[in-house]
Amino acid sequence: MGKLVVIEGLDGAGKRTLAAGLTEALNLQGATVKTSAFPRYGEDVHADLVRDALHGRLGDLTGSIHGMSVLYALDRRDAADEIRADLERFDVVLLDRYVASNAAYGAARLRQDSRGEFVEWVRALEIDRFKLPVPDLHLLLKVSTDVAAERAARREAADAERARDLYESDGGLQARCAAVYDGLAADGWLAPWQVVDGASNVNFSDLLGRLFTR
């Protein structure tokens, strides 16, 4: 059975870059890796509804924090069987965002912390009710909100298809979300967390040690 490893962090933190580097390092050590990212835009109808809402194309849907969170959760529920199959086939299944993103962003929008009612609601929905696989490890890619915003702006300028959405454009939300992530990591929510400094070069040897010595 493979390990389910999740990369979490703010929009613009560099999760995609970390996933690519970690995959290469694991492959060099002979490990098989399957990578995926949530939301699964272009693959799942719930994810596409999320994208439309975040770009203002579904009226007032984004005003419903729980409604948006259910769409995120349904995207993952529809991927759950595939994740389980991948865990049987690969040494590592590496996900860019997972359940903790739903918890962190929803709690931040509600101005709750990591131990608030919303975080527990997400856990009950996605883990208890939808029976999603529980991660073996979270990697929290930590950068300042200023760095994340700058990277997101550069990404937007370079790729028109990656224009910032309503969440990514809200600096206050990003700051509150960072605080919730810190609390989730400190509490070891769902699984152990390792904090990765996203402002410096990543030591992949160290990361691999964290993955395989638990």
UniProtKB/TrEMBL annotation:
This is Thymidylate kinase. One of its GO terms (cellular component) is cytosol. Keywords: ATP-binding, Kinase, Nucleotide-binding, Transferase. It holds the Pfam family Thymidylate_kin. One of its GO terms (biological process) is dUDP biosynthetic process. Residues 7-162 form the Thymidylate kinase-like domain. GO terms for molecular function: ATP binding; dTMP kinase activity. InterPro entries: P-loop_NTPase, Thymidylate_kin-like_dom. It comes from the Bacteria. Belongs to the thymidylate kinase family. Transmembrane segments: none annotated.
